[in-house]
C-alpha cells in the first residue's frame, strides 16, 4: 500500500515547496509557517490536494 502525498503551497507566491504524506484522519487542511526560497522569507504554507 503506497502512501498518498500532498504538497504544501506558499500562500504568497503559490509555489509548491514541500511534499508531505497525507493523513486521512485530518479533517482540515494543514497550515504551517515554513521558509519559501522564492519569496526569501517565512510564509504561511497550506496543504493542497
UniProtKB/TrEMBL annotation:
Keyword annotations of the record: Ribonucleoprotein, Ribosomal protein
Superkingdom, natural source: Bacteria
GO cellular component: cytoplasm; ribonucleoprotein complex; ribosome
Protein's GO biological process: translation
InterPro entries recorded: Ribosomal_bL33, Ribosomal_bL33_sf, Ribosomal_zn-bd
GO MF annotation terms: structural constituent of ribosome
Gene3D superfamilies per UniProt: Ribosomal protein L33 (2.20.28.120)
Family that this chain belongs to: Belongs to the bacterial ribosomal protein bL33 family.
HAMAP family cross-referenced by the UniProt entry: Ribosomal_bL33
Name of the featured protein: Large ribosomal subunit protein bL33
Organism in which the protein naturally occurs: Paucilactobacillus nenjiangensis
Lineage: Bacteria, Bacillati, Bacillota, Bacilli, Lactobacillales
